[in-house]
Queue: 2 jobs
Job 1
Amino acid sequence: MDFEKIVDRKQTSCVKWDRAEKIFGSSDVLPMWVADMDFDNAPPIKEALRKMIDEEVLGYTFPPDSLYSAISNWQKDKHDMPVEKDNILLSPGVLSSIAVAVQAFTDPGDSVLIHDPVYPPFYSMVNKNDRNVYRTSLTLRDGQYTMDFQDIEKQFLDRDIKLFILSNPHNPGGRVWTKDELVQLVELCKKHQVILVSDEIHSDLVYSEQTCLSPVTLDESYKDWVVTLHSATKTFNLAGVKTSFILVFNDTLKEQLVKVQEETELDIVNTFGMRATEAAFSEARDWKDALLEKLEANRMIVTDFFDKELPEVSYMVPEATYLFWFDAKSLSVENEKLRETFAKVGKIGLNDGISYGPSGSSHMRLNFAVPESLLIDGLKRIKTVFDHYSN
Ligand SMILES: Cc1ncc(COP(=O)(O)O)c(C=O)c1O
């Protein structure tokens, strides 16, 4: 577990590093954008994959019971959510699961509600499936995002919303929703017959002062309204193996999901992903605990840096995720130019907030899951941009 080792990821078809030039228009940008960590993978996962390559033939495979047990044990131990094999649907990715949920629970022309701001593919996935996407703005309270339940209920009614997609915890703000917030949300869903898709891909990366709750665990009746999406790929940085799972407890909801999955072959996951997921959940728990300590230390470095070096910049302290959301409005650079400005002036690649929705205006998102030396380098590059505009 050497989280300070610099891993050279260039020329490995790595989106974060090898697409940086295309995205940011310059080859000397330090990429701190897409949610992908610059740490070596956990040794037990690598070992499981190595063993497979050495000893097995890579023909057709099916999900073994041991994979379902690994997922059940993880959900029970880490999320207080007892799940049986029957409740687990494997899926190539959380975004594939969102597409499946959209097709399963809505018809073309139906309306889906998401937060503003939120992870951009929520919008595009619904839109590409010919459904209407509406946004409910998160409001700022004590420097953190909170939900506007009045607006949510109004939109449920006015727009006849069929599906709500929640990022739980929230990407990009790093918010861990409280029990009270989740209960209010699901109660509204129940009242207005809206299915809630809870995307919990970041739910294992939660800092020590917080507990991330799965809405489905809060009341037995919520099982009829909530579908949970999760994966080992964010926690253990395995996005390339394309394996995730849907947790569903209601028979009708499950039937609807299975129908779409079977029609599209999105019920099949790949051999490497199954093996990696099982090894991660069963054998890499210590690695994950150590990772969280490292991320917590990095979070402190980032907030200390902003407090001392950039006191005029407001930001959100993430309660979960390795994502840091800050407001670059003091630069007075228009949204369309922000990403390019950070790339050109600071030589740093960040996600631009406007792509997360109108409320992301003037914001930028930094990924701090990197060795300390890269983090310090990245923070200095960000400061260069602010210094450039203040002179
Ligand atoms: C909230 C959220 N959902 C889904 C994904 C992507 O999941 P997958 O790679 O399994 O499609 C991400 C990736 O960053 C994410 O932040």
Job 2
Amino acid sequence: MQAVRTLSLDQAASATPDLARLVAAAEVGAKPPGDNTPLYAPRRKIYPQSVHGTFRRIKWAVLLVTLGIYYLLPFVRWYRGPNAPAQAVLIDLPSRRFYFFFIEIWPQEVYYLTGLLILASIVLFLMNAVAGRVWCGYLCPQTVWTDLFFAIERLVEGDCREHMQRDGKKWTAETYARKAAKHFLWLMVAWWTGGAWVLYFADAPTLVKDLATFQAPFVAYVFIGILTFTTYTLAGHLREQVCVYMCPWPRIQAALTDEYALNVTYRYDRGEPRMAVGKAAELRAQGKSAGDCVNCKQCVRVCPTGVDIREGASLGCIQCGLCIDACDAMMTKIGRATGLIAYDTDINIKRRQEGKAGFVKLVRLRTVLYAAIIAIAGGIMIFTLATRDSEGLSSIHDRNPMSVRLSNGAVRNGYTIRIVNKQLRRRDFILAFNGLPASLIDFVGVPPRADGQLLIDVGPDTTREVRVLVTDYGDTPPASTPIVFRLTDVATGEQAEASDHFFGP
Ligand code: SF4
Ligand code: SF4
């Protein structure tokens, strides 16, 4: 019996010089010498044809709503009181606040934004479990802006056929003029996109005036420039390349989906074998089978990413449903039932081939789990937002020295107390503490009232820091005694507490 000897890659490489070069090339991720195969497929310019139908109408509606919100939201006013900004959605970086209608998020509450991001991820997972890449096809900013740029392109350069023909011929003055007009309009949209972005960071009407009179902060112009460039490049030039090569979501989505998720599917059980209408009629007349696909390629022509859905699931398919509209139009034209391409599953195709009825299974372990997480996380966030305190108290103990013994034998500790007033009115607070019976509390620079209580006023929507000295006149305290500072609103009685320690010498 012949013995089989296994060589390691290094042993094999040292045995043959050619293999050594191949191994070296593989190790650095390069092509072996002499291999002229390109690393990337050359880009094929896509001229998506316009299409009409249900999914196209849904996409127009989503485009109008999402872009309308994005461009107009900074101008929506929301009165919060005389001491607060009146912009409904505002990221106020100098004051470190985020305003969203009636919600105001302070820097120490940034966990709400973290919670919102987690919630958004789970909603994305749920959408994916129900109907595949709904986000990619309808809601993703790259899809929405690319769709808008395609619409401008068709308006200026004509639909697919006219545009392709003009590009294929020698360019004339008209070609150049149309291209210039298209790029000008693209740049205008991109510029307005960047302009709208910065309006979320300052009072929008004021900033618009400042931008127009060149009195806005320099950083605003920089960000408008960056956003103009990225929008123009991503939506005007890179288009489907972003979805196919740059975006991580299709890869993640592919790992998260299951066989029950509805996806835009070519029903090959019905479509194949594809053939012309006449040939199909002939075969059917003879009692032979013929598919419903007439190979008109309308589904491919309207696809914004150039995918042929009939070849099966693909990373390039953003599930926009436009091929459904194109195929339905063709089926209607030739008098066949629509739905040759539809939201469906491969399971259903197999079931139909076995003579069973298809089904949609929306309630599954993963959809229930995602919905439950959304409900619980959303509920917790709403509850904590609705019941959160309108005042806050925190204490930082002096680090050096931790404690001081005074000439009269008493022991003193110093603290920095931070008081947060989240209401839009000035408030008076009384600060007290307990934990050390024979002790006194003093504010540095804040004299006590006649009744001995320490009153601190804090301005609307602000934080105030005060130095506090706690002096213990009792017996020498143990090395560490827990104490609690308590803040009380004089007018309403609302309270906040902060725990700390009193250290002996
Ligand atoms: S194959 Fe159909 S659903 Fe997929 S991207 Fe193209 S048109 Fe949209
Ligand atoms: S549009 Fe419909 S009939 Fe035409 S090629 Fe595509 S799947 Fe076939």
